[in-house]
Write a structure and sequence with these properties.
Length: 237
């Protein structure tokens, strides 16, 4: 009589599944990219999985690329095989997160800059396995600004000159000198001021007796986003 021999294959199957899971884990997948603005030095965070690891560096490598697909001339940063002109600043490279500090190399030369609305393609390869690229496309946005307003003296007396000081800031620094901000009371423009080092001043002695809410509005430009301050309740006695 012939015996039927049944061998258990669970360990083999488990090993195959484990190997497949490991391979999948080593394949890069991008789940999100933080906003990319028009500035040269900025923090760009790429999150996902399977990125592998790499030590920090400034320059090019075989494993990451940021390509401006809208600019004319078009340019690509970070990918060594293309002999890039613009390079990347890599602060951190972990399996689930890559942190960039912006752009180096020939940034600013031959119109190699970012403009609001440009389409930016991000590609990542795994340095350990060579797998990839994981690809995502995002749109360049304006650098966000914050505008604040102070006044002095407050309260003031009828007919006394009041000085309003506006400050416009961003993570990339202040907007260019000479740009203007508007000092508003409701929908009425009281006056304007020119920025210098991110600050602008406006003086008036024409406010009515009582409380007037005054705010300042920065309209933005091709690099910096618009913003406005919270109102200052200016009291005239």
């Amino acid at each position: 009589m012939t015996k039927l021999i049944v061998r258990r294959c669970f360990p083999v199957v488990s090993a195959i599944v484990a190997a497949a899971s490991w391979a999948a884990a080593q394949t890069p997948v991008i789940t999100s990219v933080s906003k990319i603005s028009t500035q040269q030095f900025q923090t760009i965070v790429i999150t996902g999985s399977g990125f592998g690891t790499h030590k920090p560096y400034t320059g090019d490598s075989d494993y990451i690329s940021l390509e401006d697909q809208t600019a004319s001339p078009g340019w690509q940063a970070g990918y060594k095989p293309f002999n890039d002109t613009v390079t990347l600043i890599v602060h951190q490279w972990e399996d689930s997160k890559i942190i960039l500090g912006g752009f180096s190399g020939a940034w600013g030369q031959f119109d190699y800059i970012l403009t609001i609305g440009d389409s930016e393609q991000v590609e990542v390869w795994n340095p350990q396995t060579g797998s990839g690229p994981a690809t995502v496309t995002t749109t360049i946005v304006a650098e966000a600004t914050t505008t604040t307003l102070t006044s002095a003296p407050n309260p003031s007396t009828d007919g006394e000159a009041v000085t309003f000081t506006a400050d416009v800031t961003s993570k990339a620094g202040a907007p260019p000198d000479g740009e203007t901000v508007s000092f508003m009371a409701g929908k009425t423009e009281l006056g304007t001021g020119a920025l210098s080092g991110g600050s602008a001043v406006f003086m008036t002695s024409k406010l009515r007796v009582g409380t007037t809410p005054v705010r300042v509005v920065y309209a933005g430009d091709s690099n910096f986003g618009k913003s406005q301050s919270k109102p200052v309740q200016q009291v005239v006695q």
